[in-house]
Amino acid sequence: MLSFETIAEAHDRIRPYIHRTPVLTNQTINERAGADLYFKCENFQKIGAFKARGGTNAVLQVAQNREGTAITTHSSGNHAQAVAYAARQVGLPAYIVMPRNAPQVKKDAVRGYGAEVIECEPTLDAREQGVRDIIARTGAVLVHPFDDDRVIAGQATAAKELIEDAGQTTPFQVIMAPVGGGGLLSGTALATHYLSPGSRVVAGEPAGAADAVLSFQSGKVEKAPFIDTIADGLLTSLSERTLSIIRAHVSEILTVSDAEIVAAMRLVWERMKIIIEPSCAVPLAVVLKHPDRFAGQKIGIILTGGNVDLGKLPF
User: Fold this and answer.
1) In this protein, which residues make up the domain named Tryptophan synthase beta chain-like PALP (predicted)?
2) What is the pLDDT of residue 248?
3) Across the 315 residues of the chain, what is the mean pLDDT of every consecutive 10-residue run?
4) Which residues of 109-127 are buried (b: 16+ CB within 10 A; e: fewer)?
5) String of b and e for 147-162 (b: at least 16 CB within 10 Å)?
6) d(Cα 3, Cα 202) in Å, to the nearest integer?
């Protein structure tokens, strides 16, 4: 298991390249939820998402250790931007495999950071084959979106900051994050374990990509029975690495429908006046769906990102 020292070292390493994002509250949303919610606004992060943390931590170490002369990964968007951004910081070329149906705004952003985008069919097999082809052609080093300790350590720094900035005097009773491949949730769970051990970690997952909840129950990596969700950033299954951390340190995983996700997303846009993407709204949707479960509690929520295609808003 990753040590606290590894997470702290990651934080020190990436500090010059990231924002220490604000923690915001909203009275109207608190009243609606019946709880005290503290939102860690990673939608204000570099590249518009928390993924800048893990991608930067991994790429910096690849460069420092001279592991290769190029970087590659596969991603539907935010991790792709993170790796492209980090590779530009260290002067390495980046080759990013992205599904052809990834949001255009995310593909454009990756190219804007100077990376080469290789489009593929929207399946995990196609993404992984694309990366293998790039490695064979260029010798690039893979920075996996979540199945990588260096990425997980970087993602853990978001919860570390949340706890340091808003959970010291009165600890959080619950800390929440969405779950896709589990990199953020693993990092959140570890940071909470070390810094706020009395807090429960609860994950939110779309009902239309509900693999993590099944894996959490069975103890082995499961596939979602079907994929149909607006939360395009949460379509990936867990890895053995992330599942082991999640089962050790996460209390529960709760699912929400797309309608509930969109309602939570709209509420944040309307009441907080900030842009978040559908995947980002999943934990708030969980709180709103289960008011009795969270009533009266102090809850920290990581708002994961704000990279939306403004031409395709769901409201």
Assistant:
1) 14-305
2) 98
3) 96 98 98 98 97 98 95 92 96 96 87 96 90 96 97 98 97 98 98 98 98 98 95 92 98 98 98 97 98 98 94 89
4) bbeebebbbbebebeeebb
5) bbbbbbbbbbbbbbbb
6) 21
Domains of the chain: 4-50+153-312 (3.40.50.1100), 51-142 (3.40.50.1100)
Residue by residue, DSSP assigns 136-164 as HHH-PEE--SSS-HHHHHHHHHHHHHHHH
Only one residue has tokens 């082995």, namely: 220
Rounded CA-CA distance 248/251 in Å is 9
Phi, psi of 178 (to 5 degrees): -75, 165
What is the per-residue DSSP string for 203-234? EEEEGGG--HHHHHHHSS----S----S-GGG
Q: In terms of pTM, does the model score above 0.85? A: yes
Retrieve residue 297's tokens: 């509690």
Q: Which two tokens stand for residue 310?
A: 């403004």
- Is 31:184 a contact under the CB 8 Å cutoff? no
Cβ(76)–Cβ(98) below 8 Å: yes
Q: Which residue has the tokens 């395709």?
A: 312
15 Cβ neighbours under 8 A, 6+ residues apart: none
For residue 244, give both structure tokens: 């082991």
- Residue 43 identity: N
Rg from Cα positions in the chain: 18
Contact yes or no for 113/71 (Cβ under 8 A)? no
Rounded alpha-carbon distances, angstroms, from residue 193 to 27, 156, 186, 204, 255 = 29, 11, 10, 18, 23
